[in-house]
Write a structure and sequence with these properties.
This protein is 34% helix and 20% strand. By secondary structure, the chain is α/β, with parallel strands linked by helices. The protein has one domain: DHBP synthase, CATH 3.90.870.10.
Length: 214
């Protein structure tokens, strides 16, 4: 399946347009973010989302986050409450995934693992943001087989056992923040009054609590 994959340049408009075409036709792409390389598709395409689960060997009870480029796009899908807005204003665009109450009932249940919550993020990487302006939304899971190491560079993706995606979008890795941090995004659930840090990544837990309770 690897020989059908194409490589695109995230800095070239014509390649971003090609990437949009792939996404709109139900394809799967690997793309750079400000943390790790992500595996994505149109989150409204249930078949494409199902393929991502199969490519990753991901358990179906694990929800998938969605990436976008603007607050207004976030609020079409998720209710951004007071705590969520505090964190978003402090860390977006950036390596923070905020889990809030699902608003858009057209999001396939396979994305949310049958829950009434959804995780969303605005990444801080120009190639990703430009791509998202074409696509509006992308599933934002890591580009690796589940429980195997994440990929921080395109050559790691190419050498990994992950196959079956349609395109690899390469970003400017010299300026990538992840080359310094080597971590994924921090995930915070603000869907209830009891804020929970589900995963500590680039942003430390104490920094999250300082913003929320200062």
């Amino acid at each position: 399946m690897r020989n059908k994959m194409i490589i695109l340049d995230g800095k070239k408009e014509q390649d971003l347009i090609k990437c949009k075409e792939i996404i709109m036709n139900g394809g799967i792409i690997v793309y750079p973010t400000d943390t790790i390389y992500g595996l994505g598709c149109d989150p409204y395409n249930k078949e494409a989302v199902g393929k991502i689960f199969r490519l990753k060997n991901r358990l179906m009870n694990k929800a998938l986050p969605i990436l976008t480029f603007d607050f207004s796009q976030v609020e079409k899908i998720m209710i951004l409450n007071e705590n969520g807005r505090k964190l978003a204003n402090s860390f977006w665009p950036g390596p923070l995934t905020i889990v809030g109450t699902l608003k858009d009932k057209d999001i396939p249940k396979i994305i949310t693992a049958e829950k009434q919550t959804i995780g969303m993020r605005i990444p801080n990487k120009i190639e990703t943001l430009n791509l998202l302006k074409y696509c509006n939304y992308l599933v934002g899971t890591s580009a690796n087989i589940s429980n195997e190491k994440s990929c921080f560079y395109a050559n790691e993706v190419l050498k990994s056992p992950l196959v079956g995606y349609d395109a690899l979008v390469i970003g400017d890795e010299k300026k990538s923040n992840i080359s310094l941090s080597l971590k994924g995004s921090t995930i915070v659930d603000v869907s209830s009054s009891n804020v929970k840090i589900l995963r500590e990544g680039v942003i430390k837990s104490e920094t999250i609590y300082e913003i929320l309770y200062q």
